[in-house]
Write a structure and sequence with these properties.
By secondary structure, this protein is an alpha+beta fold. The chain is built from 17 helices and ten strands. It folds into three domains: about 50 residues, no CATH class; about 150 residues, no CATH class; about 140 residues, Serine Threonine Protein Phosphatase 5, Tetratricopeptide repeat (Alpha Horseshoe).
Length: about 400
């Protein structure tokens, strides 16, 4: 490949793609490409050693924490219950999740194009070593003793969160079913308000599929009983107990709309506005008009008491569902008044003007501002293509 063409190819790649090409996928590229990629990273002000120094820990309860890779050992939990999961997301967005099984671990690896493999990890020490190597973009397989073939397994839940997976695997374990929680492909950039939740694919052996689905079906009976408990607590004005009931419901049925809405309203009334948003935002676009109006009313209350960019994005999403483009724009402009340099707001406004408002001038302005704020955006090439199309019109 000609040097000029290699340099041009490197310029078109994101920082994460360049970093991946020079580390975890290094064997797929020639030395000339490595050198050009290193030069391109330096040109953008990204040294490999600095760029790969950060990772994200995913704790057994589903919470996450940004950490320096040198602190991985100190930050990893020391004691784990049966079925507990702890994960690492490295700086190129690959995910490695360790799932506890009695005295050993099963390690599941997912990259941008899906599940890459599962292996036995025989001890806590081997798990720590693999976590360190994975976070540093080094070889992390040396302590793993065998592949876990999942070709004869079936997916029974394609997308679920940590709490649901843990409850489901506890129930499966009680029935002697060997379930696996494989990490879902890492999240991708999205427009508007976005709640990041580590996701899993729940799998079982093909022979256990029918029994597994029967186990999960029993969750609906438990959920119905918990709804009755929540209603009783609501009648008695027992907010703490009512919230606890909704927590239990959502651990078993994360998509339960009644639990999400009622929990969101309760949290808002007690001043826990960010948590309230986590409940109310996922309902937008999935509920009837009257419930959507109620959500909008509650979001207005949050915007008065604790205005924030996610609140304005959520209100904009509601107006988008309603088809009111002018109202969408007003809410997004409210977000910009809070922070004129919020990249996601500029990107959302850019697409609004491009797709709905019919203004190439304003759309291009917001696209360019977004690229200025996020020079290494993964979607840079797509946006530059849009901008070129505008220039040609």
């Amino acid at each position: 490949m000609e040097p000029n063409h290699v340099a041009e190819l490197c310029r078109a790649l994101s920082v994460k793609d360049l970093l991946r090409a020079t580390t975890v996928d290094a064997e797929d590229y020639e030395p000339a490409f490595h050198a050009a990629a290193q030069r391109e990273l330096s040109r953008r002000g990204h040294e490999v050693a600095t760029t790969k120094s950060r990772a994200r820990l995913i704790y057994p309860d589903g919470t996450t924490l940004e950490v320096n890779v040198e602190d991985i050992d100190a930050m990893l939990p020391r004691e784990f219950a049966e079925g507990a999961m702890v994960g690492i997301e490295n700086c190129v967005d690959d995910v490695l999740v360790f799932q506890r099984h009695r005295t050993q671990w099963v390690a599941h690896h997912a990259a941008h194009n899906g599940h890459k493999g599962s292996w036995i990890c025989p001890s806590d020490e081997a798990m720590h070593a693999a976590a360190r190597g994975f976070a540093r973009l080094e070889d992390w397989h040396c302590g793993l003793v065998g592949d876990v073939p999942l070709s004869d397994w079936v997916v029974i839940e394609p997308s679920c969160g940590t709490r649901y997976v843990q409850r489901a695997m506890e129930a499966m374990e009680a029935e002697g079913i060997d379930a696996r929680a494989v990490p879902a492909p890492p999240r991708s950039l999205c427009r508007g308000a976005c709640i990041e939740v580590p996701g899993y694919v729940l799998m079982v052996p093909v022979a256990d599929e029918e029994r597994s689905r029967a186990v999960l079906a029993t969750f609906s009976e438990v959920v119905a009983g918990l709804h009755s408990q929540a209603a009783l607590h609501a009648e008695r004005a027992e907010a703490v107990e009512e919230l606890a009931a909704y927590e239990e419901i959502l651990a078993l049925a994360p998509e339960d709309q009644v639990a999400l809405f009622n929990r969101g309203v309760l949290l808002m009334e007690t001043g826990r506005h960010e948590e309230a948003l986590d409940c109310l935002v996922p309902l937008i676009g999935r509920v009837e008009d009257d419930t959507l109006a109620d959500i909008h009313h509650h979001l207005q209350g949050i915007s008065r008491r604790a205005p924030s960019i996610p609140v304005f994005h959520a209100m904009a999403d509601i107006e988008r569902v309603r088809g009111d483009v002018d109202a969408v724009r007003r809410h997004l402009e409210d977000a910009l008044r809070m922070d004129a340099n919020d990249a996601m707001t500029h990107l959302t406004l850019a697409y609004l003007f491009y797709e709905d408002a019919g203004s190439d001038t304003e759309s291009a302005s917001h696209f360019r501002r977004y690229l200025d704020l996020v020079p290494d955006a993964d979607d840079r090439e797509v946006i530059e293509t849009i901008l070129e199309g505008m220039d040609g019109r």
